[in-house]
Design goal:
Layout lengths: L3 E3 H7 L6 H9 L3 E3 L2 E2 L5 E3 L3 E6 L2 E7 L12 H4 E3 L3 H13 L13 H10 L19
Antiparallel strand pairs: 1-4, 2-3, 2-5, 5-6, 6-7
Helix pairs in contact: 1-2
Length: 141
């Protein structure tokens, strides 16, 4: 085991992000910090450091137990990191799930493609006595 690892590789190897490039983009966009300070993808981390990762709507906190740069199986993740996220963050996540658009009632929100076509066929200009060549924008008198 090595003493240090790049933070972008560690976030990917610890399965916090799906790919290393997504991890690097999150770091560059200021979503990853150590002790409240934004870091660069090449920042070396050591065991014992706490990393904050913002994945809206909450901020996860992870304590580094091992520094690795090679991806490991999901069963080995508890040996790599410890989740020290504040329980209030999980309450915030649950509140956003409850208030979100998870169970949208049928007919609310934007129309589906099928509904849009039905609306367009209902509002066909020929129904209102207009010809196909009628110009709505002309200012002829």
């Amino acid at each position: 085991m090595q003493e240090t690892a790049r933070i972008d590789k560690w976030l990917w190897a610890a399965r916090i992000f799906k790919t290393r490039s997504i991890a690097a983009d999150a770091i560059k966009n200021g979503r990853v910090s150590i002790q409240g300070v934004n870091v660069k993808p090449s920042r070396l981390i050591k065991a014992g450091e706490v990393i904050d990762v913002k994945k809206p709507p909450i901020t996860y906190s992870f304590r580094v137990l091992q520094t690795i740069e090679q991806r490991v199986g999901a069963k080995l993740v508890p040996e790599i990191l410890e989740n020290v996220t504040d329980p209030k963050q999980y309450e915030l996540l649950e509140m956003s799930r409850i208030s979100g658009f998870v169970d949208r009632a049928r007919g609310t929100g934007r129309p589906t493609k099928k509904e849009r076509r039905a609306i367009d066929s209902f509002i066909d200009p020929t129904l209102f006595g207009f010809d196909d060549d009628f110009d709505f924008d002309s200012d002829e008198e």
